[in-house]
Design a protein that fits this description.
heterodimer, A: 365 residues, alpha+beta, 2 domains, two-stranded antiparallel sheet, 10 helices, 19% strand, B: 223 residues, alpha/beta, six-stranded mixed β-sheet, four-stranded antiparallel β-sheet, globular, binds adenosine-5'-triphosphate, binds magnesium ion
């Protein structure tokens, strides 16, 4: 402790330099981590909120809910007695309050459910859907697009207009914000139905996209349906796995490379002090005492650098525009921090080895 | 009192397959209160002898006894502890840890031993060597003479019974060299310890009780 701190005190400039390297590298790592996590959430929050264990899709839909269409009657027969919710998922561009400029157009996912279903959105502001032309929106639309209760959202595909009556907590699917309606309004049939197609809008629901199962119990189906675990379903969200892999590899390599850089840095600094270690050894100060101080210095440098890196990351979050998918998860931060401390210590062990090798005779002439 | 005994000690180095006889078989005894000088030309084996005395390297053959303990067969950890407690080294240059102030050099000793810093003792030593006003400075800020005196203070701080100095006055002018040798004479006599001094400087020999000479690894007592 004594040696480690006294040296840092004497060699302030040098240690400031090393710490700033740790700060910059860790800042980059944490920032990427935040982006990766934010993007992952943007793909999946709406799915996690379904509280589902499994999802039933049409046979051959390739785990993609947008390719799935199931006869309602069949589905209801098959799932009799199970804890399930019917779900429709549609996708379209939409615009707010009839304005078609960039600021008011959005890429939207419409999720429809029965009003008493488990997957119906919990209301943060306003109220739940009560009528045909009403919707509850993800709060992200309020933050990113200034959507307010009472505004209208017009679906570009079928020109159907919804009035926003409430907000639910953030829900996104495949990076698009979600609005929740009743089951019929999000059906494939009504997505392609335009108001002037016929005098009577199609109100009879014949098919749904899927059903989610809320329990773990094993299911056997007789019809041509696919049972997919929710994790499997999430992994099949278009582009999702590629993103996770890209970011994951980037982060892992950054952590590895940065700890090698740091390790080399500390090693060079350590071997520059060979003479000093020799002097101490002549005095009878043991290698283990000197090594401990080298390790402690590494720990001080990495912990303080990482701490500043984390602080910078939190500060950055405050100034990032809401549209940037950036989210900090404390658990991930802690895990990466521990990993980085571990790898730098591992690098420092090489320095320690060189300390033990210093022969006090070399200092004498 | 007998402090150190060499019995038929010799040291060979193998360098590129060639055997160098750095120190040929020699025997002698050192006593408490003695100031002993070792002289000889460069490469004659002076440092080799001194480092064996300090337990920094083992002899190729023979027996070295320090205060009744066999130094030649002792393992490295024990030799480290012994050196820390009983033996003080003063080197030609850079005896001090560059990133510790003069006072911190003493504190390091106590931190290593996990005991309380003896401020009174270090101050007394620094006062005696006239470097008290330099205590908060780093070795690089001191003059050569001041550094050498600081190194002597540091070596004396642990109260060693054997003080080993390898050309302690080499970097000093003759007046400062005289000051240092007088100081060493005083601390040897007054505290009844043994000091062994390697030197090239003949004027220092007047202050020594015995003088050994090494030529080509052969040790003889001159006086
Ligand atoms: N580690 C070693 N490996 C090989 N040879 C060595 C080693 N140490 C010393 N020698 C050789 O042993 C001989 C004695 O060396 P030593 O350092 O004891 O001389 P010295 O009297 O102290 O010389 P100087 O006055 O120049 O310091 C020299 O020939 C030297 O080259
Ligand atoms: Mg020498």
């Amino acid at each position: 402790m004594f040696l480690a701190l006294k040296e840092i005190k004497k060699e302030k400039g040098r240690f400031l330099l090393i710490i700033s390297i740790v700060v910059l590298i860790s800042y980059l790592v944490y920032f990427l981590l935040g982006l990766a996590y934010g993007l992952a959430l943007d793909n999946t929050t709406a799915i996690y909120r379904l509280q589902a264990k499994k999802i039933i899709l049409a046979d051959g839909s390739n785990k993609n809910i947008q390719s799935s269409l199931i006869e309602l009657e069949t589905l209801q027969q098959e799932l009799k007695g199970l804890d399930y919710s019917l779900i429709n998922l549609g996708r379209s561009s939409a615009y707010i309050n009839g304005q078609k400029d960039d600021r008011h157009t959005i890429s939207l996912v419409i999720i429809g459910s029965e009003s008493n279903a488990k997957i119906a959105p919990t209301i943060l502001e306003g109220r739940a859907v009560m009528q045909d032309n009403e919707a509850v929106a993800s709060i992200s639309l309020k933050h990113e697009k200034d959507l307010a209760i009472g505004d209208t959202i017009k679906i570009a595909m079928n020109e159907k207009e919804f009035k926003v009556v409430g907000f639910t907590s953030e829900a996104k699917y495949n990076t698009s914000s979600v609005i929740y309606t009743d089951l019929e309004n999000a059906s494939a049939a009504s997505m392609i139905f335009k108001a002037d197609d016929t005098k009577e809008p199609i109100k009879i629901l014949k098919r749904v996209s899927a059903a989610v199962i809320h329990t773990d119990e094993p299911i056997t189906l007789t019809s041509n349906l696919e049972i997919i675990s929710i994790q499997d379903f999430i992994n099949s969200i278009p582009g999702y796995q590629a993103q996770i892999l890209t970011f994951g590899l980037m982060i892992i390599f950054l952590v590895l490379i940065s700890s090698i850089v740091l390790g080399v840095f500390l090693y060079i600094i350590t071997i520059q002090k060979k003479q000093t270690f020799g002097i101490m050894k002549v005095q009878g100060i043991s290698s283990s005492y000197i090594s401990k101080s080298v390790l402690l210095q590494t720990l001080i440098v990495s912990v303080s650098g990482l701490f500043i890196g984390i602080s910078l990351t939190y500060i950055t979050q405050l100034f990032l525009p809401v549209r940037v998918p950036f989210k900090i998860d404390l658990l991930f931060i802690i895990a990466i921090t521990l990993l980085m401390i571990f790898t730098t210590i591992l690098g420092a062990l090489f320095s320690v080895k060189s300390v033990a090798k210093v022969d006090p005779l070399e200092v004498l002439n | 009192m007998e402090i150190m005994k060499f019995e038929q000690v010799y040291k060979n180095f193998i360098d590129n397959g060639e055997t160098i006889q750095a120190l040929k078989e020699t025997s002698f005894t050192l006593h408490a209160g003695e100031l002993v000088a070792i002289i000889g030309p460069s490469g004659s084996g002076k440092s080799t002898l001194l480092t064996m005395m300090g337990g920094l390297q083992r002899p190729t053959g023979g027996k070295i006894t320090f205060k009744g303990q066999a130094l030649d067969t002792m393992d490295e950890d024990k030799r480290n502890i012994l050196r820390f407690d009983e033996i003080g080294f003063i080197l030609q240059a850079s005896n001090l840890v560059p990133y510790l102030t003069i006072e911190e050099q003493f504190q390091l000793v106590d931190k290593f031993e996990k005991r309380k810093y003896d401020k009174a003792k270090s101050e007394e030593l620094m006062k005696k060597m006239d470097i008290l006003k330099r205590r908060n400075q780093y070795p690089s800020d001191l003059s050569g003479g001041e550094r050498q005196r600081a190194a002597i203070c540091r070596a004396l701080y642990t109260n060693p019974s054997l003080l080993l100095a390898d050309e302690p006055t080499a970097s000093l002018d003759s007046k400062k060299a005289m000051d240092v040798i007088k100081l060493m004479q005083e601390i040897t006599r007054n505290s009844n310890r043994t000091t062994v001094l390697v030197t090239h400087d003949d004027r220092l020999l007047d202050y020594c009780d015995r003088v050994f000479k090494i030529v080509d690894g052969i040790l003889t007592q001159e006086r």
